[in-house]
Amino acid sequence: MARDKKLIIGNWKMNLNMHEASLYVHQLAKLVKNHRDVEVVLAPTALTLQSLSLQINYRQFKLAAQNFYWRDMGAYTGEISAAQLNGIVQYGLVGHSERRHVFNESDKDIRAKVQAAIRNNLRPVLCIGETAFERSEGETAAVLHDQLIGGLANVTSEELKEVVIAYEPVWAIGSGKNALPDDVSQAVRAIRSQIKHLYGAKSAEEIQVLYGGSVTADSAKAYLDLPDVDGLLVGGASLDAHAFSEIVKKAHKGSSLANK
Ligand code: 13P
Q: Is 168 an annotated catalytic residue?
């Protein structure tokens, strides 16, 4: 997907049951118009993915898995594979901070999941970000560097075209303390510079990089206006169809196409 299109992903985390999810999508479909310059993606709980896949119009919304296992099939009780998600979702979150910190996912797990997503035609959204402690120690760029190398090992430059990076500082997630746009800009520049180092200038220019962490309808525009930022990964504010639709509208108005 080219960078002239903003990508807005709503990560519902472990919220909304089947009935609530269906009602939400019904409401959102009425609130959000199709825009050529915005791609809207919903990441509901795995339980609701299949029923929502039948309910949504894929030209209006796409679906993302919040998580999946990296093997394609086998004796892995309780897991869902990217192969099984193929045809239902178009994206898969990988390495979200809650997966890293609550479920102890390692870079090894994360890069296997990136590979599994690519192998099964899902676009991996590789989430990276520093903790408050790492930021206070001046380690932000080093952490981003390590997490990028950890997640992207084995990804070719051709495969990188399918990868989305989400910069989500851990301290900004669910805390109400969203990062300052200048700090986001700096971090995203560090990410692009690392991609340039690994894959060259063209890949660094083309890769989509999102910001996530306590984004609201009020703060969204400040990030969408940053030239290096290609969209948002929204948690809490995506749980309300109306608030999320306001964020989507900002992406449309704030896009380079809309301003022409
Ligand atoms: P919040 O928007 O609730 O801070 O969550 C961000 C996030 O983790 C999205 O993946």
A: yes
